[in-house]
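Notes, p. 3: input format for complexes.
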Amino acid sequence: MSDEAERQMQFLYALRSRGVTEARVLQAMEKIDRGAFVRGIFSERAYEDMPLPIPCGQTISQPSVVGLMSQALRVNPRDKVLEIGTGSGYQAAILGQLARRVYTIDRHRRLVAAAQEVFTALGLANITAFVADGSHGLPDHAPFDRILVTAAAEDPPGPLLAQLKIGGIMILPVGQSDTVQTLIRVTRHETGYDYEELRQVRFVPLLEGLGQD
Ligand code: SAH
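Output follows (213 residues plus S-adenosyl-L-homocysteine):
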């Protein structure tokens, strides 16, 4: 077996053993090369199940967390999805395989530009990245079938709740930064919202306004 095939097998095995079992999610993660989203000295660790540093003091999430969040979001092929926290663009690329259309927002211009470059290089044409404060959502493209937030807020931001379709699902980590946060699933009904706690996670904080670079 080639080194690459072996590496791929171990990558998928780690995902399965941590609970990523949905076929569509595994296929997406098999197809999208995480190595394309990690630059510099950490690139050789791209296939390990760990978070890694990316520019602007941010992190690309652990692959198993990307898989579990994508699974928890229950994405349908016709869905329009909003992601808050583009970071490297890896999670958006996975969502792009599961959904019809993906909009992703980050407060750092530099991260958005780098992610957009990778989307173009890989021919991922159904993803668009924007520089903006994601806590306001993306009113011009709302409402969304699914919303995924990859930075932790103390509470679900009101504009994001408002931009979810009836029947829509939002997954987000809530809690204080620097401590363990809880990943929750919010489902919007005709008359309100349901909240379910899924697991403990640790994300960088959702910050206000735009970043310096
Ligand atoms: N999903 C990313 C990892 C996200 S790290 C990936 O797959 O690589 C969290 C990201 O959220 C960081 O890039 C950070 O800049 C961004 N972020 C934090 N607060 C934000 C806000 N208010 N609006 C938009 N992005 C925000």
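The pocket of S-adenosyl-L-homocysteine is lined by residues 58-61, 84-85, 87-88, 90-91, 105-108, 111, 133-135, 150-151, 204, 206-207, 211 (CB under 6 Å).
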